[in-house]
Amino acid sequence: MSTPLKQIHLAAHFPGVNNTTVWSDPQAGSHIEFSSFAHFARTAERAKFDFLFLAEGLRLREQGGKIYDLDVVGRPDTFTILTALAAVTERLGLTGTINSTFNEPYEVARQFASLDHLSGGRAAWNVVTSWDAFTGENFRRGGFLPQDQRYSRAKEFLATATELFDSWRGDEIVADQASGTFLDDARAGAFAHQGQHFDIAGQFNVPRSPQGRPVIFQAGDSEEGREFAAAGADAIFSRYSTLEEGQAFYTDVKGRLARHGRTHDQLLILPAATFVLGDSDAEAQELARDVRRQQVSGATAIKHLEFVWNRDLSAYDPDGPLPDIDPDPGEHTIARGRAQVRMYRDPLAVAREWRELAAANKWSIRDLVIETGNRQSFIGSPATVAETINSFVQADASDGFILVPHITPGGLDTFAETVVPLLQERGVFRTEYEGTTLRDHLGLAHPGTEAHQERAAS
């Protein structure tokens, strides 16, 4: 008896805080006008995607006091965008990144519960921590937390928010006009939490939402991040680009679920992926080379090299050889607000590896950054891309993909029109939404009242 084909999950990431986006392309539009967000969301919904995803940029990133040449300056508030999109979509999930380091559980829980009500059960929260003092300067508390404290606060933040979501059973509102009774429980929403990071008590003022709780996403790849996701997230992002790396990550994270009392299907693994489509594989490869040259200008290549060298390299020619000086492994990074610097734990070793690659392939600085900086990308004809996506999912390298187009807002259109129908023909992607909530789309259970009952009995 053959194993049933896995159903693929697809989502769309509206870019804008990285240089994936080619804002200088003539086809590119605004990254702040609502029409761009609406176009993007409507395309994703027309293609029956699970959700739209917004990242978060809490501060414009700098290097040498200057904004990156391909960074898109500014990002409107996540909740404002998602709430507006709830009014122009009907089924598409609405996922936003909200930081647990600089916010408070009551405020965030209230916002997500409200979004879930306004959208009819389509809200999702990507829980992240902030890692650097540079970002912290924008906030009252300033500074930043060491990694162990960041995750400690994040775990308690999520646990506290969950207590708030579960403080309503969902059946307290009777609204009996004849008797004048609105609530059958005057203590609906009551909560009290005391912990290392939060000491709050009161009544949560948003009734239980359609999903009970928003879908929870997590993006950390560290040991702490993987364990955090296994313990309580509904989905985790993955950054692995090859089939073998994806399978190893999939096996590791899914293997952690049992010790938290969870099953294999209670956590989805969803890598981000760029794509370039052409009428043929050869045409797509040529287009992809052009896109990468647009994404990595000479100035961007030098800035990227500075992540590792931790030195001012502005005097070097991006079309010339790598610097012959070694990186400065100093504690203070030249790049401010760039999370990528954390990827290079041993800059001297990275520099040696990159020099060997550049020498073997006769790469310039720009060539090296282009060749080593790719995330998982699907390049080819629609048929090739559909086959590759399906092969990753069926081989348990992922449960689907979050697609990141390089053109905003129209970069998703061709994928929706050409690749999605091929996946539907294979029987691995829906032709219609079968439910109304994001949990329905993702195959996740709706939290019931058991958590409320357990807390009430304890």
TrEMBL record:
One of the entry's Gene Ontology molecular-function terms is: monooxygenase activity
Where is each Luciferase-like domain found?
A: 23-395
Identify the domain of life.
Bacteria
Which InterPro entries does this UniProt record tie to the protein? Diverse_substr_monoxygenases, Luciferase-like_dom, Luciferase-like_sf, NTA_MOA
Quote the record's binding site residues for FMN: T97, Y151, S222
- Any idea which UniProt keywords this protein has? Flavoprotein, FMN, Monooxygenase, Oxidoreductase
Identify its protein family. Answer: Belongs to the NtaA/SnaA/DszA monooxygenase family.
Q: What is this protein's name?
A: Nitrilotriacetate monooxygenase component A
Q: Which organism is it from?
A: Streptomyces antimycoticus
Question: What does the organism's lineage look like at the top?
Answer: Bacteria, Bacillati, Actinomycetota, Actinomycetes, Kitasatosporales
